[in-house]
Amino acid sequence: MRKRIAGCLVVLSLGALVAGGCAKKDLVKEEPPPPVTAPAPEAAKPAQEARPEAPKAPVTEQTPVREPVVAQEPARETPKASGDLQGLLQKIYFNFDSSDLSEDSRNLLTRNAEYLSKQPSVKIRIEGNCDERGSDDYNMALGERRAKAAKDYLVNLGISSERISTISYGEEKPVDAGHDEAAWAKNRRDEFVVVK
Amino acid sequence: MKTALTRNYPKPGGMLALSLVCHLVVFLIIANWHFLPEFRRDESPVTYVDMVTLPVAAPQSGMPQAPAPAEAKAPAAPAPAPAAPKPAMALPTKPAAKTPPVKSQAKTEQQQKEAEDRAFNERMAKLQQKAEERRQAAAIDALRKKGSARTGMPGATGNQAGSDYSSYLQSRLRDALKQVIATQTKAPQVIATITVAPDGSIDYRVEKGSGDPFFDEAVQRAVALAGKTLVPPPNRSQYKRVFRFMPEGVK
Amino acid sequence: MIRILLLLSLLLLGPQGFAAESYLDVTAPTSGKMKLAIAPTTALSGSIPADVARELPELFGFDLGIAGPFEIAPNEVGSALLLKSAYGVQGDTAIIECRLVDQVLNREVVAKRYSGRLKDLRRMGHAFSDEVLRVLTGAKGPFTGKIAYVSKASGNKEIFIMDYDGHNPQRLTNNGSINLYPDFAPSGKELIYTSYKKGNPDLYRRELFTGQEARVSSRSGLNAMGVFSPDGNKIALVLSKDGNSEIYQMSRNGKDLARLTNNHAIDVSPAWSPDGSRIAFVSDRLGKPQLFVMDANGGNLRRLTSNGAYNVTPRWSPKGDRIVYARKEGGFQIYAINPDGSGDTQLTSAGSNEHPRYSPDGRFIVFSSTRDGGEGLYLMRADGSGQTRISPDRALNTHPTWSVNW
To answer: Where in this chain does the record put each OmpA-like domain (chain A) (predicted)?
Structure first.
């Protein structure tokens, strides 16, 4: 309650100041110091929502809440039974701004399908990637489409769609950090990752 | 009221009358234009070019009677030189201090230490400004003494100062506007009635604002700036005229 | 005809009769800019640290210089406007008094006194810059807003936040995965972003002051490019749960999902119109990525861009009169276009420039550029003038987004 009254006072005095705006010279108007205040306690939250202009602890004051550092790739290659499979599965590559499967890619996918069919309990994740040249927004979707293209092909070859998940990393996970065609060609790819 | 008046005219007759008046106006303007150069020829052109260092078109008869109160009100803020055609006056920096014709000061300058340069330059600028003002006042005085018998001009209604005062004020305003002009829109225009009281104090009333706060304020500042050192209108009369302010090159 | 009559009557009734029937013109050349000088900061009492004496005038000079309407005059004399500041300390509280003085009309235009923690000095300075813009132009400045962005400063892409001028960078996420597409809520107090921290690219909403966070969309596939609606109640985003990327909208809590596009093509990068009635987005349904506009319910679709083979990342101006975007022509360049497809204008040309976004007041566009090597953050006025680097460091920094004033 006191907070609210204080808030009202702040708002009122601010209003008064604004109203008194250019009245007299040599008068430095008091302004409720916007940058002050200790970090607002959790309890004050509803009040904050109600008064968006209320003075507020700058984020700079807060040490960002530490998040547990999570391995970004959940359970990449569990190199036990399927360890050799991971070694066998081949990456496929794409042309710029394309998710079409080249003849090479289709051959590689056919071979990948053979390995997969021999180990029907193993699941894989197809990771679609792009080179750095396109828009990264657009590439996020393009990577998705590249992964889906490979998945569809494998499913057509008889691999159960239940066993295949897809993910796009857009242009966020290049294998070659270079900025030339050789690097870009390596980065426009699908990777096949064995998951448990 | 204007519209009411015009609306009251019966259509054909009114139009005829209006067109007549219109033609008369145009004729008078043209007539005046023809008169002006003739009057000018009578004048000896030397003095007034020097006088205000301005492109005063025809500062002929009817120059101010009252002594110039140029230095009377010293502005609190360091006012830019009144008729300053050179920005150097407003910005008293080193190079500015070197150009002036004031000899004895210029010599001492050499001996000044670096630290004192600034203060010195400012004093310099003030001296220059005063000198300039004195020179102007003298020039105006001289011109006044020459005095011609003519006052007013043909077509004038009598309560108005000569066109020379208009030109004088116009160039003062122009110089002031140059210093403070700022715009936010493409072609702002302010139409304002400017009154100069017999004592030389200026006042203005905006007839039509520009809608551009930057330009409106610039005009306000220009009028204030020009009004700081203004020669009063001739014959202890009040001068009043409508001016149109706008950025150069837009019409 | 009426106009002619009016004109004539004006002529007739001019204050001086015949002689004054025309105005006397007073004209002067102009760059348009208002001269404004900034005085060195003085001490409220005692002395003032040299760095503070420099910092505030520099800050004012940067803020008001980049603002556009002002020319920062090098000399106090001869400038109509003079900005003065004074600084003092009481305990651990800093106080600054700022005044804008009209030296010609001899009056105070605005004066404010701020107090805060010593480290908030810059923020107090920006607050006065905001105020100066409000008083002189009628629209408050955006300088106390924050810019959130994606940075690789810590080795992987995390969300950071900084002052609009690149000072005080602060890491917001710290999860070691990939974090992308920050977007402020209209209140400026919440931020949504996409993170791979739990494997899938999911959408998170974080309360900035408490650090509290909720995962608001974790549907299979992409949960990306989320943007708050102007009223803050909805989020438009890209999901690929149905097979390929489509635009959806949902509540701010991730509920009430509605699909807006339905197409085999790629549909990404939704951007709300400021009234919330329309959404611009990118689709390659005609072969190459182009900008489209649809109603917020998905209807009334039409193509926006017809020039260029590859147009992406639209963002609506806060006034609604322009849409800024990036066009790929070799590298990327930033363009702005009217929402009806007219007035297509190129704004950048140096380096490759992407991820444009308007400041909340519409005066500026923030973007990322490779012009100085690497990819850094830059700022320009909405007309493309005044392009200035604001990156806080040399790390790869992209996807800037500017919050309302804190």
So the answer is: 81-196
